[in-house]
């Protein structure tokens, strides 16, 4: 019975309402007392739920002399009504989404920590479905969180499959130059920043989100979801890009 109650609840009924409906199915036609006994619920509890079920068309009430009898709607009819409600909701989905536009467009800041946070941050970046990233890095920060194999398989491969290009400003170093040698096969073009500049944070910029990744010892990653902030960071990146030969 417990399993059937869970199945019936999927139609949007509460646990108690589902128990009453299941009891009505088994009895076929029943009084409040009979439904209470079969569902093992108090009569006082049943009254307000029965009103809810009759209004929803789950139960049909009829008067027989001085008694009120309740008959269950066939399960197939409940399924039909549920499908109609889903269909109506789908037709109105566009209008509903317009109502939440304000919330969707509000700036968001996410804080992440550790290896799991690093992966969560990249999930946000990759899920933007945008086709170009801008990156400012010393090249080594990622290795504080994950092995190089994860960067290749978990990030770069996904970028390539999605057709994502990236422009990178990377600090000039032996390791940085090793990374740049892979630009062509990793859908990237790079320019070197002077080695004198230190970049504790790596910055990844898309059109809708900017992610800052600190070295592992600092153990902090944060993402800013805001188009205006992204536009500002892109403008600063492009200014630097144009200045570097």
Characterization of this structure:
The chain has 245 residues and is α+β, with helices and mostly antiparallel strands. It folds into 2 domains: 74 residues, Arc Repressor Mutant, subunit A (Orthogonal Bundle), CATH 1.10.10; 138 residues, Endonuclease Chain A (Endonuclease, Chain A, 2-Layer Sandwich). It has a 7-stranded mixed sheet, sandwiched between helices. It has a two-stranded antiparallel ribbon with strand order 1-2. Strand 1 and strand 2 form a beta hairpin. Helix 1 packs across helix 2 and helix 2 crosses helix 4. The longest helix is centred in the middle third of the chain and has 17 residues. The protein is elongated and about 95 Å long. The mean pLDDT is 84.
Label this structure with key terms.
single chain; 245 residues; alpha+beta; Arc Repressor Mutant, subunit A; Endonuclease, Chain A; 2 domains; seven-stranded mixed β-sheet; two-stranded antiparallel sheet; 11 helices; 9 strands; elongated
Helices, strands, pairings?
Blueprint: H1 2-9, H2 15-27, H3 32-39, H4 43-55, E1 59-64, E2 67-72, H5 75-91, H6 93-99, H7 101-104, E3 108-112, H8 114-126, E4 132-137, H9 148-161, E5 165-171, H10 174-180, E6 188-193, E7 202-205, E8 209-213, E9 221-225, H11 227-243
Parallel strand pairs: 4-5, 5-6
Antiparallel strand pairs: 1-2, 3-9, 4-7, 7-8, 8-9
Helix pairs in contact: 1-2, 2-3, 2-4
Summarize the structure.
The chain has 245 residues and is of the alpha+beta class. The protein folds into 2 domains: 2-75, Winged helix-like DNA-binding domain superfamily/Winged helix DNA-binding domain (Arc Repressor Mutant, subunit A); 106-243, Endonuclease Chain A (Endonuclease, Chain A), CATH 3.30.870.10.
């Amino acid at each position: 019975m417990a399993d059937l109650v869970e199945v019936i609840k999927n139609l949007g009924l509460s646990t108690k309402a589902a128990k009453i409906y299941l009891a009505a199915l088994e009895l076929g036609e029943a009084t409040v007392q009979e439904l209470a006994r079969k569902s093992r619920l108090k009569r006082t509890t049943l009254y307000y739920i029965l009103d809810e079920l009759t209004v929803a068309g789950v139960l049909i009430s009829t008067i027989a002399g001085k008694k009120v009898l309740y008959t269950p709607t066939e399960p197939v009819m409940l399924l039909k009504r549920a499908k109609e409600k889903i269909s109506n909701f789908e037709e109105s989905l566009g209008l509903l989404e317009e109502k939440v536009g304000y919330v969707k467009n509000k700036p968001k800041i996410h804080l992440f920590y550790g290896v799991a946070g690093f992966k969560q941050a990249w999930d946000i970046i990759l899920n933007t479905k945008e086709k170009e990233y801008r990156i400012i890095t010393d090249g080594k920060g990622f290795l504080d969180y994950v092995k190089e194999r994860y960067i290749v398989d978990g990030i770069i491969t996904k970028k390539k499959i999605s057709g994502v290009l990236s422009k990178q400003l990377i600090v000039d170093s032996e390791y940085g130059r090793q990374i740049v040698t892979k630009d062509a096969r990793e859908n990237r073009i790079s320019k070197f920043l002077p080695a004198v500049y230190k970049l504790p944070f790596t910055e990844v910029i898309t059109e809708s989100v900017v992610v800052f990744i600190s070295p592992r010892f600092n153990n902090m990653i944060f993402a800013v979801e805001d188009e205006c902030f992204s536009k500002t960071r892109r403008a600063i990146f492009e200014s630097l890009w144009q200045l570097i030969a």
